[in-house]
């Protein structure tokens, strides 16, 4: 039983879900707090930058357990993360518009579907392109 629980807790998808949920909650709470003291556009920008940095650290350290041999590799990994997350942001933005305007789907249903697509895409691209452990030849 303990081995089964340990396998679940150490599973990348499980960890990704947990840290994704936590960073999503942090995103909302931080935005709310910053929004009380500054314009919402600035509050959102600051929140997104901080949350993306935290997501990078959590994914690198706890989910994919990625190791970098040097600072150059770390910088490359970080920029890969930024590029991939920027691309999925476009999927999120335009996917929602397409689902609502062209398929006439409910707004909330569309957002749920797109969010699932983005989370899965972030996981796959994070594992494959950002945090992959390439073996040295």
Descriptive notes:
By secondary structure, the chain is mostly helical. It has 2 domains: 1-65, no CATH class; 67-137. The chain has helices at 2-10, 12-35, 40-63, 71-101, 107-130. Helix 2 runs antiparallel to helix 3 and helix 4 runs antiparallel to helix 5 (107-130). The radius of gyration is 17 Å and the shape is globular.
Topology of this protein?
Elements (H helix, E strand, L loop, with lengths): L1 H9 L1 H24 L4 H24 L7 H31 L5 H24 L7
Helix pairs in contact: 2-3, 4-5
Short description:
With 137 residues, the protein is an all-alpha fold. The protein contains five helices and no strands.
Helix/strand order, N-terminal first: HHHHH
Strand content: under 5%
* Overall strand count: 0
Q: What is the count of helical runs?
A: 5
Low-confidence stretches: none
Q: What is the percent of helical residues?
A: over 70%
Kindly report how far apart the N and C termini lie.
39 Å
